[in-house]
C-alpha cells in the first residue's frame, strides 16, 4: 500500500514548506522574518502560514530525520554530558534537561517543572531507554543527578566538575538564541515540541566544521541540505 503524502491537501509546494520550516527552526528568525525572506524569493505567504507549517510538519520532519540519519547511526556510549537549563513559560520557570554526547550531538531533551531526584530519574530513564547507557556521565554538582544515578546503579560512572560540562553548556547557546527570537514560549507543551524538533534539525545540519577541511565541510553541508530536500518527497 502506497503511503499518502502529508502535503496532499496543501496548495503550496512541498519545497516551499520544507524551506520555511528549515529557516524557522534552524536559524534564530521570527515568523515575520521568514515571511520576509520568502517574499524576497517571490513567495507570498503570511507568517501565520509559516506558524501552521512548522507545527504541522516540524515533528514529521524530525521523525523522518531520526529514521534516515540518526536511527541508522550508532549512538556514542563513551561520554554523555547532562545539564538542565531554566526556561520561562508564561512567567513560570520550567527546566529543560538535555543530554549531549562528546561530539555535540543532542541525544535527548526533556521538560519538567522541577529539577529534583524524581525529574532527574525520569530524564535518565528516558534517555537510556532510547540510547542505551554510557561509560561516563558528566554533570554539574546538582545533587539530583547523584541521587538518581545511585538508584539506577550507575553512580560510579558520574563525573562532576566546574569546567567538565562545557560541551553541553555551549550547546545551550543555540537554543537560547531561538528562545529570544521566539519571544519565549506560551505553553509547556510547545516548549517540549520545539526542543525536540530543534534538536533533530540541529543534529542533521551540525557538521563539526572545526574537525574537517573546507572541501569536506562543503561536501557534508551539501549532502545534509540535499537530504533535507528529500523530505519533501517522503
Protein architecture, described:
The chain has eight helices and five strands; from the N terminus they run αααβββαβαβααα. By secondary structure, it is an alpha/beta fold. The protein has two domains: 14-72 and 208-233, no CATH class; 79-186, Ribonuclease H-like superfamily/Ribonuclease H (Nucleotidyltransferase, domain 5, 2-Layer Sandwich), CATH 3.30.420.10. A five-stranded mixed beta sheet has the order 3-2-1-4-5, with helices on both faces. The longest helix is centred in the first third of the chain and has 24 residues, at 47-70. The radius of gyration is 19 Å and the shape is globular.
SSE inventory with pairings:
Blueprint: H1 14-26, H2 31-40, H3 47-70, E1 79-89, E2 92-101, E3 106-112, H4 117-131, E4 136-139, H5 143-152, E5 158-160, H6 166-181, H7 188-205, H8 214-229
Parallel strand pairs: 1-4, 4-5
Antiparallel strand pairs: 1-2, 2-3
Amino acid at each position: 500500500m502506497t503511503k499518502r503524502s502529508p502535503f496532499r491537501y496543501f496548495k503550496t509546494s512541498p519545497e516551499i514548506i520544507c524551506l520555511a520550516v528549515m529557516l524557522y527552526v534552524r536559524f534564530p528568525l521570527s515568523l515575520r522574518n521568514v515571511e520576509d525572506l520568502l517574499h524576497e524569493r517571490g513567495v507570498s505567504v503570511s507568517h501565520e502560514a509559516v506558524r501552521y507549517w512548522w507545527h504541522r510538519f516540524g515533528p514529521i520532519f524530525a521523525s523522518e530525520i531520526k529514521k534516515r540519519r540518526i536511527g541508522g547511526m550508532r549512538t556514542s556510549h563513551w561520554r554523555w554530558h547532562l545539564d538542565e537549563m531554566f526556561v520561562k513559560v508564561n512567567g513560570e520557570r520550567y527546566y529543560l534537561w538535555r543530554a549531549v554526547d562528546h561530539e555535540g550531538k543532542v541525544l535527548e531533551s526533556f521538560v519538567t517543572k522541577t529539577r529534583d531526584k524524581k525529574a532527574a530519574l525520569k530524564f535518565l530513564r528516558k534517555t537510556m531507554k532510547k540510547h542505551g547507557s554510557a561509560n561516563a556521565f558528566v554533570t554539574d554538582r546538582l545533587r539530583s543527578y547523584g541521587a538518581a544515578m545511585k538508584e539506577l546503579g550507575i553512580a560510579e560512572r558520574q563525573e562532576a566538575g566546574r569546567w567538565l560540562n562545557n560541551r553541553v553548556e555551549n550547546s545551550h547557546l543555540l537554543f537560547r538564541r531561538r528562545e529570544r527570537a521566539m519571544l519565549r514560549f506560551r505553553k509547556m507543551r510547545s516548549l517540549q515540541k520545539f526542543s525536540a524538533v530543534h534538536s533533530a534539525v540541529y543534529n542533521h545540519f551540525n557538521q563539526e566544521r572545526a574537525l574537517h577541511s573546507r572541501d569536506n565541510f562543503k561536501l557534508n553541508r551539501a549532502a545534509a541540505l540535499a537530504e533535507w530536500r528529500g523530505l519533501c518527497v517522503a
